[in-house]
């Protein structure tokens, strides 16, 4: 990891690695054959999107239920937060192993396997309300599904958003489409689950049952999606050999992605896991609904801003990631104030700011990753990127564990300082990589 691999030809042709150019996209995509000479289906990526959307749903529909597990399930605060972050234990292996498997077996079979894992996860969560270990297993399976969606699903949609599958998509469509699909899944999944838990029957079962049934429908749809990785381009090495990804040593990845990525979901976790905990004494029985609103607001703001990232890059000379981290630092500072005053309205504002930061950072980081990756490296480096991003989702668990030693206002103050240091590191790294104006 200390040595930098040779820069791909496509990357050297464009010194700005914050966004792919038309030349790099053409180089990366024209290697896909036209599947026996036939014309690929138009908008084929939409056949993958429902499965990817529901896998994201499965990862986040637990979020509004944290308060329910504390109050009705009798779990301690640290246990409920551990369950929230537990799916990272399945997500990171799912990200890395799934990407390597898809390079050898193709995108479709691996995404199908991830969908089946998510269905099993929802089944166990529905059955295990009083069983902590069963809930943990269910969350890990849900994490595997999200990991598959993020690495394999992102790569599959990116490839289906390029020729020969799509000749009309914009240069950044391969980053924006999967990021938006995931964000909408995270947001709408939480919204449906929160509403079912607040007003529906059997709140410990119904949300998971709805998710499982919808996943079965998505599974049928994804069977009709075209495979984007033809057999002659698949890796011939065993999948565990594919876990070695030289691009993690690339200077752009080291200087920009590594210090920025953990804040992507670190911000989201603070917004919809910590903020409701700060004001739950003011809300009483409405805490579950409030947590739902904050989750949807955070991810809704993130979804709305994602299509503006190319414009942000043009305005800032390719420094969208710096803008996102600056906004994230502001959100963390506001979170400290919210912890001191315990005001639900201010907590809502914090969620919006952190949601905007999340949306800018997740797409900006993905554009950078896709710009430095060759087609054969795409799934693997995407998996590493999302693994780093999701490591931040454990932040609420860490802060909850520190509560006996320090309150949220103190611990969030430390988080804000670290976020500002990361902003400085990425700003310096962005200048060193010589970013130019892009769109």
Descriptive notes:
With 439 residues, the chain is mainly alpha-helical. The chain has one domain: Growth Hormone, Chain: A. It is built from 19 helices and no strands. The protein has helices at residues 9-12, 22-29, 49-60, 66-71, 77-86, 88-105, 107-127, 132-160, 173-199, 206-222, 251-260, 262-283, 287-306, 309-316, 320-341, 344-372, 378-391, 395-401, 408-432. α11 runs antiparallel to α16, α13 packs parallel to α16 (344-372) and α15 (320-341) runs antiparallel to α16 (344-372). The longest helix has 29 residues, at 132-160. It is globular and about 60 Å long. Mean pLDDT is 80; it is low at 1-39 and 435-439.
Fourth CATH level, the homologous superfamily: MFS general substrate transporter like domains
Radius of gyration: 21 Å
Mean pLDDT: 80
CATH overall fold name: Growth Hormone, Chain: A
**Relative strand content:** under 5%
What is the CATH class designation? Mainly Alpha
> What number of domains?
1
Structural class: mainly alpha
Largest sheet: none
Structure at a glance:
The protein is mostly helical and 439 residues long.
How does the SSE layout of this entry go?
Blueprint: H1 9-12, H2 22-29, H3 49-60, H4 66-71, H5 77-86, H6 88-105, H7 107-127, H8 132-160, H9 173-199, H10 206-222, H11 251-260, H12 262-283, H13 287-306, H14 309-316, H15 320-341, H16 344-372, H17 378-391, H18 395-401, H19 408-432
Helix pairs in contact: 3-7, 3-8, 3-9, 3-10, 5-8, 5-18, 6-7, 6-8, 6-17, 7-8, 7-10, 8-9, 8-17, 9-10, 9-13, 9-16, 11-16, 11-19, 12-13, 12-15, 12-16, 12-17, 12-18, 13-16, 15-16, 15-19, 16-17
């Amino acid at each position: 990891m200390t040595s930098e691999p040779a820069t791909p030809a496509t990357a050297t042709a464009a010194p700005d690695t914050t966004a792919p150019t038309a030349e790099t996209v053409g180089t990366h995509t024209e290697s896909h054959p036209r599947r026996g000479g036939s014309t690929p289906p138009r908008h084929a990526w939409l056949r993958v999107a429902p499965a990817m959307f529901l896998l994201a749903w499965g990862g986040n529909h637990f979020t509004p239920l944290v308060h329910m597990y504390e109050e009705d399930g009798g779990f301690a605060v640290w246990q409920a937060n551990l369950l929230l972050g537990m799916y990272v234990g399945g997500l990171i292996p799912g990200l890395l192993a799934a990407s390597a498997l898809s390079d050898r077996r193709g995108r479709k079979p691996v995404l199908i396997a991830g969908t089946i894992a998510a269905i099993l996860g929802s089944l166990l969560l529905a059955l295990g309300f009083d069983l902590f270990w069963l809930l943990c297993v269910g969350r890990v399976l849900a994490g595997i599904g999200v990991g598959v969606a993020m690495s394999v699903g992102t790569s599959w949609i990116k490839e289906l958003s390029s020729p020969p599958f799509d000749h009309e998509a914009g240069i950044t469509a391969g980053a924006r489409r999967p990021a938006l699909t995931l964000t909408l899944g995270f947001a709408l999944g939480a919204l449906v689950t929160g509403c079912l838990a607040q007003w529906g029957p059997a709140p410990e079962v119904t949300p998971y049952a709805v998710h499982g049934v919808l996943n079965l429908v998505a599974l049928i749809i994804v069977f009709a999606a075209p495979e984007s990785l033809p057999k002659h381009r698949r890796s011939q090495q065993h999948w565990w050999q594919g876990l070695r990804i030289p691009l993690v040593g690339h200077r752009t990845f080291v200087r920009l992605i590594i210090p920025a990525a953990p804040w992507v979901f670190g911000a989201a976790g603070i917004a919809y896991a910590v903020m409701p905990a700060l004001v739950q004494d003011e809300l009483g029985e409405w805490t579950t609904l409030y947590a739902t609103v904050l989750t949807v607001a955070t991810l809704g703001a993130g979804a709305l801003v994602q299509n503006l990232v190319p414009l942000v890059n043009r305005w800032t000379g390719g420094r969208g990631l710096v803008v996102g981290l600056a906004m994230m630092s502001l959100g963390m500072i506001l979170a400290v104030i919210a912890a001191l005053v315990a005001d639900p309205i201010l907590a809502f504002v914090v969620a919006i700011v952190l949601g905007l930061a999340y949306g800018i950072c997740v797409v900006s980081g993905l554009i950078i990753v896709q710009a430095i990756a060759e087609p054969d490296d795409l799934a693997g480096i995407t998996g590493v990127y999302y693994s780093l991003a999701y490591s931040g989702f454990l932040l609420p668990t860490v802060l909850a564990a520190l509560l006996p030693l320090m309150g949220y206002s103190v611990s969030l103050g430390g988080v804000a300082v670290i976020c500002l240091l990361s902003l400085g590191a990425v700003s310096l790294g962005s200048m060193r990589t010589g970013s130019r104006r892009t769109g």
